[in-house]
Design a protein that fits this description.
165 residues; two-stranded parallel ribbon; mainly alpha; 10 helices; elongated; single chain
Length: 165
C-alpha cells in the first residue's frame, strides 16, 4: 500500500478504514490508524474555519439567504430588489416565497434623508437642483468672444439710454 501524502485526520482516509474492516484486513486497518496524527487538535471535528465569522458559517451550513436590508439606497445600488411584480402577477403565496428567497429592503430611498426628501418634494425644480448640488449656473456671456461681448454691451447701453431719455 502506498500513501501519496501524510495523513492527518480520518477525513483524508475516506472509506478506506471501513473497507479494511469489512474485508477483514487487519494489517491495513492498523497501518492506517498508525499513520493518523496522535494530536487531538488534528482530528476532523476540531478543524475550525477561523477565517470566516460564525454567522456566515451558520448561514452557509443551513443555506440561509443573506440578511434582509432594512434601508436600501437607490443612488448606491440602482438594481434594488422589487417583489411587487410577483405579488401583482402571481399572488400573495408566491410573493411570500419570493420574499423569503430574495428579501427586498423595507425602505428604498435615495441619498437624501427622509426629512430632506419631504422638504424637497415641496420645492420647485431649481431649488431641488441647488439643494442636491446638481444645479450648474450657466452664463452665455462667458462663452462669447470678447468682441461679441462688447457688441452686446453696446446694445444694452443703447437700449438703456433710449429708455432713460
Amino acid at each position: 500500500m502506498q500513501i501519496e501524502s501524510t495523513l492527518v485526520n480520518e477525513l483524508q482516509i475516506g472509506n478506506r478504514l471501513n473497507v479494511a474492516i469489512e474485508h477483514n484486513r487487519r494489517g491495513e486497518f492498523g497501518l492506517l490508524l498508525a499513520m493518523l496524527s496522535i494530536d487531538a487538535v488534528d482530528m476532523a471535528q476540531f478543524q475550525l474555519d477561523n477565517d470566516i465569522e460564525s454567522t456566515q458559517k451558520l448561514r452557509r451550513q443551513f443555506a440561509v439567504p443573506p440578511a434582509q436590508l432594512l434601508i436600501d439606497d437607490i443612488s448606491v445600488h440602482p438594481d434594488t430588489i422589487d417583489n411587487a411584480i410577483v405579488f401583482q402577477q402571481q399572488g400573495a403565496r408566491q410573493f411570500q416565497l419570493q420574499q423569503a428567497l430574495t428579501p427586498e429592503a423595507l425602505v428604498i430611498r435615495g441619498s437624501q434623508p427622509d426629512a430632506m426628501v419631504e422638504v424637497l418634494s415641496n420645492c420647485d425644480y431649481l431649488t431641488k437642483n441647488k439643494a442636491i448640488n446638481a444645479y450648474q449656473q450657466h452664463s452665455p456671456i462667458e462663452e462669447m468672444h470678447f468682441l461679441d461681448q462688447l457688441n452686446t454691451q453696446r446694445k444694452i447701453s443703447n437700449t438703456l439710454s433710449l429708455q432713460l431719455a
